[in-house]
C-alpha cells in the first residue's frame, strides 16, 4: 500500500472511461424502489450471512480522528499516536443552556463528553472507542437500522452499558427521535455509512443529525470517494443513478467528491475543519492487480451562534 499517491492523467482517464461504461445503462426506475424501501432488510440479511466477520476493526480511528478522545484521554493517546496536533483543540464547551441538562433522564446524561456513532454495524469502531473512553467521564451511543447488527454489538463481551447505549434506529426516518436531547453530543461519527443511503436522502440525514451536536461539537466522516477502485470495478447493470450503485446483495453505495462533501456539511450549517481525499495505491502481488483507492475524510464543526450585542 502506498499513501498520498498522485494520479496521472492516464489513471484518471482510465477510471473515467470505466465508470462511463459501467453506468451507461441504469437499472429501470420502476425496479429501483426496493433498494431504498427495503435497505434495512438487505443490510440485516448481510449481517445474518456475515455475522461479525466482514468488516475489520477500525484501528486507524484515533490516529485520524483524535477528536473522539474525551478530554482526559487526549494527552495519553495522542502521545502514544504522535498524532494530529489538533486533538487538543476540539472539545465542545458545555453550553449554559445545554438542552441535555434540562430534560428528563436519558442514558449517558451524566457524562460530560458524548459521542454518537451512526451505522455502527457490528461495532468495529464501537469497541475500540469503548475500550478507550472507560472511566473518562464519557459515553458512546451507537445505532444501526439492522436489528441483527445491534444484537451482535450487545452480545459482544466488551459491551458495557455503563459507557455505551446501542439501539436500532433508521436515520432516514424523519419523525423518530434519538434517545438523547438536541445539542447534547460532542462528536458524531459516520464510517462508510452515508454512502449506503439514497443520495436524495443524505442531506436530510446530515441536517437532522447536526441538530444533536452541541455548539462547538464536531461531525467526523469517512467514506468512499469518486473513482475508488470499488466504483471502477462495478459491472454493467448495477448502476442506479450517477455514481450510485447496488451490489449483488441489494446493499447500495454512493461515491462522493470533495465538493459534494463540502456542500453536504455546509448546507447543514457546519464549518469545515478538514475535507480531504485519501488516495492510496494497493497492490495485490499474487493476482497482479493494482488498485487505486480513494476515501473521503472530513471533519465539520457546529459553530457557536453569534453572541447577542
Ligand atoms: C458499510 S457498513 C459500515 C459499518 C460500520 N460503520 C463500519 O465501519 O464497519 C454501513 C452500515 O450502515 C448501516 N446503515 C445504512 N443505512 C442506515 C440507516 N438509514 N440508518 C441506520 N443505519 C444505516 C448499515 O446497516 C451498515 O451497518
Automatic annotation (TrEMBL):
Catalytic activity: cytidine(32) in tRNA(Thr) + S-adenosyl-L-methionine = N(3)-methylcytidine(32) in tRNA(Thr) + S-adenosyl-L-homocysteine + H(+); cytidine(32) in tRNA(Arg)(CCU) + S-adenosyl-L-methionine = N(3)-methylcytidine(32) in tRNA(Arg)(CCU) + S-adenosyl-L-homocysteine + H(+)
Gene3D superfamilies to which the protein is assigned, alphabetical: Vaccinia Virus protein VP39
EC category name: transferase
Enzyme nomenclature, EC number: 2.1.1.-
Keyword Cell membrane: no
Keywords: Methyltransferase, S-adenosyl-L-methionine, Transferase, tRNA processing
UniProt GO BP: methylation; tRNA processing
Xref: CDD domains: AdoMet_MTases
Gene Ontology MF terms: tRNA (cytidine-3-)-methyltransferase activity
Function: S-adenosyl-L-methionine-dependent methyltransferase.
UniProt family annotation: Belongs to the methyltransferase superfamily. METL family.
PANTHER family in the cross-refs: METHYLTRANSFERASE-RELATED, TRNA N(3)-METHYLCYTIDINE METHYLTRANSFERASE
Name of this protein: tRNA N(3)-cytidine methyltransferase
Lineage of the organism: Eukaryota, Metazoa, Chordata, Craniata, Vertebrata
Amino acid at each position: 500500500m502506498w499513501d498520498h499517491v498522485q494520479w496521472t492523467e492516464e489513471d484518471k482517464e482510465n477510471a473515467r472511461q470505466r465508470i462511463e461504461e459501467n453506468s451507461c445503462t441504469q437499472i429501470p426506475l420502476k425496479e429501483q424502489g426496493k433498494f431504498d424501501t427495503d435497505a434495512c432488510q438487505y443490510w440485516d440479511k448481510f449481517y445474518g450471512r456475515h455475522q461479525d466477520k466482514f468488516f475489520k476493526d477500525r484501528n486507524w480511528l484515533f490516529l485520524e480522528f483524535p477528536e473522539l478522545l474525551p478530554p482526559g484521554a487526549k494527552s495519553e493517546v495522542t502521545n502514544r499516536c504522535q498524532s494530529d496536533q489538533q486533538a487538543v483543540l476540539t472539545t465542545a464547551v458545555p453550553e449554559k443552556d445545554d438542552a441535555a441538562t434540562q430534560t428528563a433522564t436519558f442514558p449517558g446524561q451524566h457524562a460530560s463528553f458524548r459521542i454518537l456513532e451512526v451505522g455502527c454495524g457490528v461495532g468495529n469502531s464501537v469497541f475500540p472507542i469503548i475500550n478507550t473512553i472507560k472511566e473518562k467521564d464519557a459515553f458512546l451511543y451507537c445505532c444501526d437500522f439492522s436489528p441483527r447488527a445491534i444484537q451482535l454489538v450487545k452480545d459482544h463481551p466488551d459491551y458495557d452499558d455503563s459507557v455505551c447505549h446501542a439501539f436500532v434506529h433508521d436515520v432516514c426516518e424523519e419523525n423518530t427521535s434519538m434517545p438523547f436531547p438536541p445539542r447534547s453530543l460532542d462528536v458524531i461519527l459516520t464510517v462508510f455509512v452515508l454512502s449506503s443511503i439514497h443520495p436524495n436522502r443524505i442531506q436530510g440525514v446530515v441536517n437532522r443529525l447536526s441538530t444533536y451536536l452541541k455548539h462547538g461539537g464536531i461531525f467526523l466522516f469517512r467514506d468512499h470517494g469518486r473513482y475508488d477502485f470499488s466504483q471502477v470495478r462495478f459491472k454493467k447493470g448495477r448502476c442506479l443513478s450517477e455514481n450510485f450503485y447496488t451490489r449483488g446483495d441489494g446493499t447500495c453505495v454512493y461515491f462522493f467528491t470533495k465538493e459534494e462533501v463540502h456542500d453536504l456539511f455546509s448546507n447543514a450549517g457546519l464549518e469545515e475543519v478538514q475535507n480531504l481525499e485519501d488516495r492510496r495505491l494497493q497492490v495485490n502481488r499474487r493476482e497482479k492487480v493494482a488498485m487505486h483507492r480513494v476515501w473521503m475524510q472530513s471533519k465539520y464543526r457546529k459553530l457557536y451562534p453569534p453572541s447577542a450585542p
